[in-house]
Write a structure and sequence with these properties.
Mean pLDDT: 89
Order of helices and strands: EEEHEEHEHHHEHEHEEHHEE
Strand content: 25-35%
CATH topology: Rossmann fold
Low-confidence stretches: none
Strand order of the largest sheet: 6-7-8-3-9-10
Number of helices: 9
Shape: globular
CATH class: Alpha Beta
Structural class: alpha/beta
Helix content: 25-40%
Oligomer: single chain
Length: 257
């Protein structure tokens, strides 16, 4: 599905260095690592927001640089850490943006089927009561669920999430990622997700990549990578591990004073 080949990127210093990895069809692929490790920069390159990189990236067998913006927009859905939305649009209008690329003509009206699809997705995310409210009236968590619903309304082949649970309480974190996981299993969606919560990554991601200082340290399953030694190396974290349903979960420990 996606292949990084010796990808490098720098501003005034190196941010990403020689990234080589593959994301396969139907992966729920987690990108983890400490702050400043290059996770969000990697996603910005993948959504064509940053282009001055060295190396090659292939998406569905085609070089990323060869996609037009419109072609690529039909292929991916993206949920950012935060949105630059600065107009008082209603939630239903924001969600309808996810249907825009399906319009036959740029200035066509949305169909009854489009409206029904929006209402259906709103119910899935528990935001149907927010449809007539403006974005400015929403909490951070409510708005994040709106952005995730909008991304899935595009019916993308690849869903790219940059810390999608940062504004959500734990219940909605599990619910939102669970919805994405359902799309992976039922629709063949591929998800690439930057996460800080190690336990959510273990719960949902079948593959995990650890970045640190712009370099890929490890790639594998949570069961393979979540060891005391690796977590100490990546995060300088002292922890214990517990297992449930054959998945590892992290208990962080305080240093003794």
């Amino acid at each position: 599905m996606i292949e990084f080949k010796k990808v490098n990127f720098a501003y005034d210093k190196t941010i990403l260095e020689d990234l080589n990895f593959e994301v396969e069809y139907g992966d729920f692929f987690g990108i983890l690592g400490p702050n400043g490790s290059g996770k969000s920069t990697m996603l910005k390159i993948l959504i064509k927001s940053l282009s001055a990189y060295k190396g090659e990236i292939f998406v569905l067998g085609k070089n990323l640089k060869d996609y037009t913006i419109k072609e690529y927009a039909k292929l991916i859905g993206f949920v950012p850490q935060s949105s630059g939305l600065n107009t008082p649009l209603k939630v239903i209008d924001i969600l309808l943006m996810g249907k825009y690329l399906e319009l036959k003509y740029s200035f066509s009206s949305y169909s009854d089927e489009d409206i029904e699809d929006v209402i259906s997705k709103a119910k899935v995310f528990g935001i149907e009561k927010l449809l007539q409210r403006t974005a400015f009236s929403l909490s951070g968590g409510e708005f994040q669920r709106v952005l995730l619903a909008r991304a899935l309304l595009k019916k993308p082949k690849i869903l790219i999430l940059d810390e999608p649970t940062s504004a959500l309480d734990l219940n909605y974190c599990v619910q939102a990622l669970g919805i994405c996981e359902k799309f992976v299993k039922e629709k063949g969606l591929t998800v690439i997700c930057v996460l800080h919560d190690l336990n959510l990554a273990s719960l949902f991601c079948n593959k995990i990549l650890f970045l640190k200082e712009g370099k890929m340290l490890y790639k594998g399953s949570a069961k393979e990578l979540f060891t005391k030694e690796i977590l100490k190396e990546v995060y300088n974290l002292k922890c214990e591990l517990i297992y449930r349903d054959d998945k590892p979960y992290i208990l962080a420990l305080k240093e003794k004073l």
